[in-house]
């Protein structure tokens, strides 16, 4: 979930005339590439043309003609029904012409045409079904994206005094949403955040994640105590979850400068990056059960207060990151990777971590994975330099005129004053 975008330049680039003049061969290749990108049946037509050319040059008679059915069969994978029918018609016409040229018997030519027609019809039906599935998949993706925007609302790059970055990858790549959850809000009691992992996958996990996030966002604004926020989530899950469902989570808060509060409920320990670059795991002193299982153990979570100075960073994550295995069944070393890629920009750090994670697993994650990194900038980074205003140079002889210009006030005759002077005389 990286949020940086490159909008590019708003100006057109003007090139010399000789750069825009291309050879006919290059233009033809570009046109073919554009048609292939647009889904035109260029490759199936080429296959039909190659088969016809081989038959014309080799003089093999009916040996190559049954291969004409490969044209419409391949068109079903790249084109719609109309494209498949066009390629099938082309293959049938080429087959008739080549069969007549080679003097093939009518029954053999009829057999070849029957194969081409049958493959064309079957391929056309397959192309129609493929197009329908693609439309349904596009609709499902749009709904999933809307659900993700509503559930996992985008986090801005700056929240309160922190710079923040988030990366999220769902195991169900087509759905783009899973059981991992995260939220970060600025409240009257400071910045508060949660990162959690719901047991299971699919729609039930998504529903539980939505429940946890809804309760957290409401309680974070209302409860002055961070443990009270966790308590409200626990009560809500106890009413709505099955007996074998639970949620592991880390809830953190920044109530005042230099102090970080952490409540760990059965989740992986956050990683704290000191200003020196050392990575330290924030292990809890009193382990607490996951959310939803307190009734079985009777243990309550504890509040840890950590020093959190300017320039330090905190990484919260889910087990989809630390339990990702490579081909040798080795787990991904997150702490070592964070120490290698840590920088002053959280987005850059998470991008490097996510790319290295995908390389470690071979390109695809098999579990939901979430990464949330926040950094407290130093005072030198947040300080805004004062604008320097140049002093205006005024000639010495005209300073008094510039400050107090001479004003001529006309004489005003006041009626009551004239009357008083007349009586006194």
Automatic annotation (TrEMBL):
GO molecular function annotation: phosphatase activity
One of the Pfam families matching this protein, by short name: SpoIIE
Location of the PPM-type phosphatase domain: 162-376
Name used for this protein in its record: Membrane protein
Entry keyword annotation includes Acyltransferase: no
Transmembrane segments annotated in the record for this chain: 45-68, 80-98, 110-129
Stored InterPro entries: Bact_Sigma-Reg, PPM-type-like_dom_sf, PPM-type_phosphatase-like_dom
Alphabetical list of SMART domains matching this protein: PP2C_SIG
Annotated source species: Streptomyces albiflavescens
This protein's UniProt keywords: Hydrolase, Membrane, Transmembrane, Transmembrane helix
């Amino acid at each position: 979930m990286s949020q940086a975008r490159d909008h590019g330049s708003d100006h057109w680039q003007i090139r010399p005339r000789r750069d825009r003049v291309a050879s006919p061969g290059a233009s033809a290749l570009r046109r073919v590439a554009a048609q292939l990108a647009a889904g035109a049946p260029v490759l199936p037509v080429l296959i039909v043309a190659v088969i016809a050319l081989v038959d014309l040059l080799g003089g093999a008679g009916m040996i190559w003609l049954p291969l004409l059915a490969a044209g419409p069969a391949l068109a079903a994978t790249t084109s719609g029904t109309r494209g498949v029918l066009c390629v099938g018609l082309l293959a049938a016409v080429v087959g008739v012409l080549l069969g007549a040229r080679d003097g093939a018997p009518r029954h053999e030519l009829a057999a070849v045409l029957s194969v081409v027609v049958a493959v064309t019809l079957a391929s056309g039906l397959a192309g129609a079904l493929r197009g329908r599935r693609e439309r349904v998949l596009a609709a499902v993706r749009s709904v999933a994206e809307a659900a993700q925007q509503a559930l996992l609302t985008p986090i801005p790059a700056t929240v309160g005094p922190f710079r923040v970055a988030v990366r999220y990858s769902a195991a169900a790549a087509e759905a783009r949403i899973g059981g991992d959850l995260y939220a970060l809000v600025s409240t009257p009691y400071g910045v508060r955040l949660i990162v959690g992992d719901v047991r299971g996958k699919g729609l039930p996990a998504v529903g539980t994640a939505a429940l946890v996030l809804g309760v957290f966002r409401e309680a974070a604004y209302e409860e002055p105590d961070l443990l009270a926020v966790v308590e409200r989530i626990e009560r809500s899950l106890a009413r709505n979850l099955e007996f074998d469902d639970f949620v592991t989570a880390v809830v953190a808060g920044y109530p005042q400068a230099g102090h970080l509060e952490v409540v760990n409920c059965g989740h992986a320990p956050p990683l704290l990056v000191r200003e020196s670059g050392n990575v330290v795991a924030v292990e809890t002193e009193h382990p607490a059960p996951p959310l939803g299982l307190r009734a079985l153990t009777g243990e309550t979570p504890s509040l840890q207060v950590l020093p959190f100075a300017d320039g330090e960073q905190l990484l919260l994550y889910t087990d989809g990151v630390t339990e990702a295995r490579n081909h040798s069944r080795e787990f991904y070393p997150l702490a070592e990777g964070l120490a290698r890629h840590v920088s002053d920009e959280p987005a850059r750090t998470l991008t490097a971590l996510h790319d290295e994670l995908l390389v470690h697993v071979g390109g695809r994650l098999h579990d939901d994975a979430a990464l949330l990194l926040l950094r407290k900038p130093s005072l030198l980074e947040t300080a805004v330099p004062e604008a320097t205003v140049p002093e205006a140079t005024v000639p010495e002889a005209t300073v008094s005129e510039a400050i107090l210009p001479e004003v001529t006030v006309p004489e005003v005759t006041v009626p009551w004053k004239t009357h008083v002077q007349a009586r006194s005389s």
